[in-house]
């Protein structure tokens, strides 16, 4: 067990807490790897019937750690995203505060999502010179419809708790201080039922989406390879680190 990911298993419910609160739980390589290992262990452990994902310090997650943004080589993002997308038991999210980039798209793979009043979600891909990841280009369209998904991807606008519920991204909104106990209550209700029935039910729910999710992972990986490290991406990440607005005005499409 790693200190960037807290794991508590009780009564069939595994609570996984992203734990880098100083960085709003940004996903660095160590955290991606810890999360991957936890998902594989959860899949193989019959004592786990439900997984609940949450974040420490009042935020869910600020997405990929931009100070080490480089998906080249054997990056654990790829295996972790697949492990979450193909997890074969019920998975819930309990998210308050920030849920950005990979910290939002991860939540699209939860079966049930509860959010706190402070929840604020954003898909900052185009503004970083990037493209959607985590099969979100498929999963979000399937959940909320293609037009609404397109608006969120193209504008990179913020979505608050109420709108997330209206859009069907979240099941329900709770006061922040009630959020986790409400999620655990529902998770325990689910965990009372037989494991095989839960697994087979998840299979029936996910099967219609399997081909779309796999195709999305493939097309996103190709597009991400083109965009990651491009001049516009480098400008966006440099601007983030220098705490200034990005300036794309001098970057021509044909310059890479
Ligand atoms: N990667 C690395 N560090 C991050 C981070 C990320 N994705 N998101 C936040 N942090 C760090 C900040 O640099 C800051 O560190 P510092 O205290 O050492 O300066 C700390 O976390 C707190 O963030 P801050 O920006 O001060 O908080 P905020 O409440 O004003 O804004 C966000 C929060 C999430 C809106 C803002 O940090 C942000 O836009 N982050 C980038 C999100 C993003 O684009 N993610 C990648 C998607 S692919």
Task: Give a verbal description of the structure.
- The protein is an alpha/beta fold.
- The chain contains 9 helices and 9 strands.
- A 6-stranded mixed sheet has the order 1-2-3-4-6-9, with helices on both faces. Strands 5-7-8 form a 3-stranded mixed sheet.
- A hairpin with a 2-residue loop joins strand 1 (5-10) and strand 2.
- 40% of the residues are buried.
- Coenzyme A binds next to strand 5.
Largest sheet: 6 strands, mixed
Q: Which range does the strand content fall in? A: 15-25%
Distance between the ends: 42 Å
Shape: globular
Structure summary, number of beta strands? 9
Bound molecule kinds, no repeats: coenzyme A
Percent helix range: 40-55%
Instruction: List the uncertain runs.
Output: none
Q: State Rg.
A: 18 Å
Number of helices: 9
Overall pLDDT score: 95
Order of helices and strands: EEHEHEEHEEHHEHEHHH
Counting helices, strands and paired strands, the structural category is alpha/beta
Strand order of the largest sheet: 1-2-3-4-6-9
Quick tags:
3-stranded mixed beta sheet; globular; binds coenzyme A; alpha/beta; 15% strand; 256 residues; 6-stranded mixed beta sheet
Break the fold down into its secondary structure elements and pairings:
Layout: E1 5-10, E2 13-18, H1 29-44, E3 50-55, H2 76-85, E4 91-95, E5 98-100, H3 102-105, E6 112-116, E7 120-122, H4 136-144, H5 146-155, E8 159-160, H6 161-166, E9 172-174, H7 176-191, H8 195-227, H9 231-241
Parallel strand pairs: 2-3, 3-4, 4-6, 5-7, 6-9
Antiparallel strand pairs: 1-2, 7-8
Helix pairs in contact: 1-2, 4-5, 4-8
